[in-house]
Structures are given as C-alpha cells and as structure tokens.
Amino acid sequence: MGSDWGQHNLGLMYFHGAGTPENYELAAKWFTLAAEQGLKESQLNLGLMYFYGWGVPVDHRVAVKWVVLSAEQGYADAQYNLGSMYDKGDNVPQSYELAAKWFTLAAEQGHAGGQYNLGLMYSKGMGVAVNDKAAVKWFALAAEQGYADAQFSLDYMYRIGRGATESNEMAIQLFTLAAEQGHANAQFYLGVQHQYGYGVPKSNKNAVKWYTLAAEQGGAEAQYSAGYIYAVGGDIPQNDLIAVQWFALAAEQGYADAQFSLDYMYRIGRGAPQNYVIAKKWYSLAAEQGHVDAEYNLQRLLEIK
Question: Which residues, at least 6 apart from 60, have a Cβ–Cβ distance to it below 8 Å?
Fold first, then answer.
C-alpha cells in the first residue's frame, strides 16, 4: 500500500509544485491513497480538492465525506472547516448547534479560527446561549495567537464593557494589534480614535495614517475620512488634490458624504478645476440618498429660473 505519510507528502509536492511541476491531478491521486489509509491530513486535503475541483471534478457530497472523516479523527483544521460549513449551510444542512460543536472541538485544540468563531457564537447566541464571558475568553485566546478578527472583536467587548471591564486603554491596544496586521475595520476605527481623541491624544496626522491604510483596502468611509483630513489639514499639511482623490473614490462607491464633499470641491474649485456641471452631478447623487445639505443645495438650484 505504501507509506501514508510518503503519499501525503508526495501529494503536497505536486499540489504546491515543490521540487516537481505543479499537478493537481497527481496531488489528488496521492492524497486519495493516503486518505484511504486513514490519514486525516490527506482526508481534509482531498475533501477541499473535491470542493473546489482541484484535479478532480467538483463533488460536494464526496468533499463532505472526507472532511467529516478527518474531523471525526480529531483533526482541528477539519473540525474548523466542518464548523464553517454548518455555520453557513455550505453543502450541509445549516445548523448553528453543529457549527458550535465543531468550532468547540477545534478551539479546544488551540485552533485560532475555531476560537474566534466560537467567541462569535457565544457573543451572538448562535447555537449556544449568549455568554459574554465565554466570548471574551475565546476571543482572547485567538487574539493571543495574533488572529486579527479576534483582536478587533475583543476590542469591541472591552470598549463597551461586555464580558470584561470597560477599558479604553485595552481597546486601543487591541485595535492597534489588529490594525497592524492589516485589519481594515480596525484601521478605520483607530483613525477615528486619533481624530477625535478617544483614549489617545487628538492627532489628524495619526488619524490619516490609519484612514489611508483602510482606504487603500477599498473602504468608502475610510476614503471619505482620509479626504476630509486632507481637506481640513490641522497637524498635517492641507492637500486639496489628495482630498479630491479620496472623495472621488468614496463617491464612486455611493458614499453620500463624499459625494456632497466632491460637489463642494468642484463648486469652488478646490483640488479640481471649478466645474458646476460635475458639482451638480455629485450633489444630485447625494440628494437622491437623502443627504440633507445636498437636498437643500439642489432645491436652491431648482429655484433659479
């Protein structure tokens, strides 16, 4: 039959193209041989290959079979994947109770994703009773492993005092840890903290640093906020050109405040050539979304005969 680990490692080599040309079909062949011998790592890999059609035809029934076999052998990665499948109803009947069961088994083995998702389930009462202290416990364990989503969620619990003593200082620390890992929401909210001085000294310079990082990931609110900081300046040089660039990106995503701000910049010629036609376009779009100031400006325009 051959060594199951030898077969598994050969599958990995073909899958990743390590020392041999990448070949998903051969990877699936070797994972199958190892999986049939009961190797839980190969069973999960084979299940994922059937899910995504890597080297084999897509077959969700077969995929679930192999993931379940792996999870039942106690493989934390498979337990996490199975929990995610039940959480979303992904090719299995949706069940928060079963999701919580499998996340718990993965979490108890130290799987950061399992710990984070179990924390979410306790915080929202999905498949388990709401238990804020349990949520904080699991968020903290995942956060200690550097899991950015858990750091962000744990920050939220500390910020509002759910399951833990309210602490702005701890919230800022956790926001920073998540933000430094590229968590866009954490970057945005850290920008808010610095802009308004929540738990840290007010600083537009620090605010725009974090807003920009979140904005570069496509967040419309962060794009608008970065534009606003550049438009007003403060402890950074005012830069209308950059402000218009960020307002435009947010406006194109339908963010009403950015559309209204872009109208203003075009109407008075700040950061862009004065252009009433373009200005009208943007405040009309903002007005359509119920932006009060844009609606007022549009009404004034319509009154001009």
Answer: 50, 51, 91
- pTM beyond 0.70: yes
All structural domains of the chain with their residue ranges: 1-73, 82-181
| pLDDT > 90 fraction of the chain, expressed in percent and rounded | 77
Distance CA 24, CA 14 (A): 6
pLDDT value at position 207?
A: 95
| Of residues 221, 217, 216, 192, the one with CA closest to residue 206 | 192
| Res 291: pLDDT | 81
Q: Quick one: pLDDT at residue 297?
A: 66
d(CA 122, CA 128): 6
Domain 82-181 sits in which CATH superfamily? Tetratricopeptide repeat domain (1.25.40.10)
The fold adopted by the segment(s) 1-73 is 1.25.40
Same fold for the domain at 1-73 and the one at 82-181?
Answer: yes
Q: What is the spatial distance between Cα 20 and Cα 49, in angstroms, rounded to a whole number?
A: 19
Alpha carbons 130 and 120: distance in angstroms, whole number = 10
CB atoms within 10 A of CB 106: 28
> Rounded mean pLDDT of the chain?
92
Residue for token digits 């640093």? Answer: 209
pLDDT at 9: 96
Q: Where are the alpha helices (DSSP H) in the chain?
A: 4-16, 24-36, 40-52, 60-72, 76-88, 96-107, 112-124, 132-144, 148-160, 168-180, 184-196, 204-215, 220-232, 240-252, 256-268, 276-288, 292-303
Contact indicator for 222, 229 with CB cutoff of 8 Å: no
For residue 86, what are its two tokens?
């039940």
Is 8 within 8 Å of 34 (Cβ atoms)? yes
* Cβ atoms of 234 and 216 closer than 8 Å: no
Residue stretches of the chain with pLDDT short of 70 = 1, 296-305
Residue 188 pLDDT: 94
